[in-house]
Amino acid sequence: MTVQPIPKSLHPDDAFLTTKEVSRLTKLSTSYFEKARLPGRWNDLPWYRIGGRVFYLKSEVLKWMLSFRHEGASGHV
């Protein structure tokens, strides 16, 4: 198991979220995140295992979501 460093500057309003909470926030299924945590999967969203439970930092989830932003093509609706 590789231990990931905790970000150096946490926002005071940041929070650890469960997989279920991240699912509600992103509108993606919990199974999406469960599968994404498997070795060699596509997801680069950082996650934390604490006492056998999995958590995500809300700020990292939001940053991850913004990484999928696409610029709209001009003239297309």
Descriptors:
alpha+beta, single chain, 3 strands
Summarize the structure.
The chain has 77 residues and is of the alpha+beta class. The chain has helices spanning 19-26, 30-36, 58-66, and strands at residues 16-17, 48-50, 53-57. The longest helix has 9 residues, at 58-66.
Count of beta strands:
3
Between the first and last Cα atoms, what is the distance in angstroms?
A: 46 Å
Alpha-beta classification: alpha+beta
Level of helix content? 25-40%
Order of helices and strands: EHHEEH
Proportion of residues in β-strands: 5-15%
Mean of residue pLDDT values: 85
Any overview of this molecule?
This protein is of the alpha+beta class and 77 residues long. It has a domain of 51 residues. The chain is 31% helix and 13% strand. A 3-stranded antiparallel sheet has the order 1-3-2. Helix 1 packs across helix 2. The relative contact order is 0.20. The mean pLDDT is 85.
List the helices and strands and how they pair.
Elements: E1 16-17, H1 19-26, H2 30-36, E2 48-50, E3 53-57, H3 58-66
